[in-house]
Amino acid sequence: MERGQMLEPKETAKALSATSSGYYSDHVDQNEQVRLLNRLANAEGSSQVKQDAVLANPPDWKTLEKAGVLPAGLSAVLSKINPLCLDEFAEMLAADPDLVRALVALVRLEGNLHTVQYVLTVLCEVVRDDSSKYEALCSAVADSEVFEAFRQLLEVANLDSYTADRAAFLLSGLMCRARSGTFSDSQVEYLVQGLLHGRAANKFLLSEGGRLDAFVNLLKIDGYRPMIWDCRGFPELVLRNLSLTLPASVLYKAMFCVWLLTFHDAFLPQLNEKGIVVAVCVVLKESRVEKVIRVGLGVLHNLLKCDASVETVIEQNVAQVLALLEFEKWRDGDMYDDIRLATSHLEQKIRQFNNFDRYCHELDKGQLTFSVLHSEKFWRENVMAFENDEFRAIKKLVKLLDTSTDKTTLAVACYDLGEFARLHPAGKKVCQQLKVKDRVMLMISDKDREVAGEALLCIQKLMLNNWQDVAELGK
């Protein structure tokens, strides 16, 4: 067989079967070692143990060549692979598309798991070390059945997560960097659905970190982001991995996914609605893993483009968190500049959000929600602005008590009127003229506990000369 010619999958199976007495008998012990090492890696919770073991035991390339699985002459080339120095191997890949195609074909060897794992591990290490090395792989992708090779592998029942993680990482990386049109939209969507729901059918048995790794690759392509975000289960995948109880590597990948999503402005309100923004804030508060905080600062920078996200960030006291982060010891000196820049941007947003104009804008919409615009700090800083246009804003609040059917709006209006009465020199007198007390008294018996509670507090603020007396009454 000449170099460059490879057997078709069926022919490969026949060739391997013909040499089974020699090949498989020599590798029974090795396959048993693979199974034992899988258990060891899972027990120790580290794929590094498995990776070192895989790289320490290269396949018998000569036997594979004799079986017709490898083109003639390639066994000598592959025998030169040095796992400790993959630069030379990367150069070999760049110079020889036939070598790339031969390695992709080996991914189909379902009956020879060790060879598959070795090929995947070496290729993953090459591209992880330098993502530009994907170019060598991509140059040969168009002429190979790379999607089918990886699809078949990922659909193998009970496939170990070590193998599945690396297969998905390589396939998603190729989809991210291959020439436009190399992979169809349906192929990309198939991979996404497999990553999210394949486990239910005993396929795509990746670890959580492996799924996130693949999504990090895919989300680098702006055109893929809407399709991925709209898939059932994806936001939940990201949210559940933004957890401080998980390994830092998994948390980092989840945060990286969020960072890539924040470049798509349409997702920003949805990230807030689904609780992802709150989760990011919690991570910034509690984690001190440098790479996690670094990408978290990038997420924060992009979130500040969305008003709803800004309100959440402010409510979560992230400004105070940033002040504390500046006093941590970071290995990378640039971290301090990044933290100060994030602090500056957030403080600017806080000034914009704590202003009377924004309050009036929300009031004009007729629907209020508890936020920094309805807080003691806001009222202390802006109470005198409510004199504008003969207390126009206060009159609108009073009107909401009569017209709004939204319970949250009514509760917020009661809170704001109480703060106005308490903090403005003429607040109680203005409220008396507008008959605020009569309206609010009717709400004390409201079935909604929040409305009733805020109404009661408002009445107390209207009636007591010193708000501090309320605290005494509660004792």
Automatic annotation (TrEMBL):
GO terms for molecular function: proton-transporting ATPase activity, rotational mechanism. Subunit of the V1 complex of vacuolar(H+)-ATPase (V-ATPase), a multisubunit enzyme composed of a peripheral complex (V1) that hydrolyzes ATP and a membrane integral complex (V0) that translocates protons. V-ATPase is responsible for acidifying and maintaining the pH of intracellular compartments. The keyword Transit peptide does not apply. This is V-type proton ATPase subunit H. Residues 353-467 form the ATPase V1 complex subunit H C-terminal domain. It comes from Toxoplasma gondii. It comes from the Eukaryota. GO terms for cellular component: vacuolar proton-transporting V-type ATPase, V1 domain. V-ATPase is a heteromultimeric enzyme made up of two complexes: the ATP-hydrolytic V1 complex and the proton translocation V0 complex.
